[in-house]
């Protein structure tokens, strides 16, 4: 059971970190360079398939890490999985509480030409929140890898 859960923790945290990294180095700069109407349209097209895929991956990863804490058999491994679980839950928290509301606000806008006067561009805030969750995801992956390989 330990091996199966370890595979889920590694695969999930690696996938999460990889997706976050890819978005950070590709999508964030591209969306930031677009005009507002073009950004709104691109945002709609790019974001429509993330739910429920990423939440399922992130929560499954956190559950695998939590389950590995008592199964680890080693205090160091248990600690690594516990911290990794907290970091992955941090990714979920930042996503759900900060990024998702901004995404919903952008998706609620009409076609590109109907941007309301005084609209506040969410891209700078979204970028900052995304970098936080990218860092959390990368750290969780490193801890999971260390727990599996070193302990």
UniProtKB/TrEMBL annotation:
UniProt keywords, alphabetically: Membrane, Transmembrane, Transmembrane helix
Alphabetical list of InterPro entries matching this protein: Anthrone_oxy (IPR013901)
The UniProt record lists the keyword Transmembrane helix: yes
Pfam annotation, one family: Anthrone_oxy
Residue intervals passing through the bilayer: 6-32, 78-98
Protein name: Anthrone oxygenase family protein
Native organism: Nonomuraea insulae
């Amino acid at each position: 059971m330990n091996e199966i859960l370890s595979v889920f923790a590694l695969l999930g945290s690696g996938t999460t970190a990889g997706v976050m990294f890819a978005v950070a180095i590709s999508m964030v700069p591209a969306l930031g360079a677009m005009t507002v109407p073009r950004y709104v349209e691109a945002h709609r097209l790019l974001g429509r398939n993330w739910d429920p895929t990423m939440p399922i991956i992130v929560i499954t990863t956190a559950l695998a890490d939590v389950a590995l804490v008592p199964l680890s058999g080693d205090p160091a491994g248990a600690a690594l999985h516990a911290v990794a679980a907290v970091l992955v839950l941090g990714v979920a928290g930042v996503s759900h509480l900060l990024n998702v509301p901004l995404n919903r606000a952008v998706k609620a806008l009409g076609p590109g030409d109907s941007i309301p006067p005084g609209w506040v561009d969410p891209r700078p805030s979204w970028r900052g929140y995304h970098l936080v969750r990218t860092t959390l995801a990368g750290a969780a992956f490193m801890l999971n890898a260390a727990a599996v390989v070193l302990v």
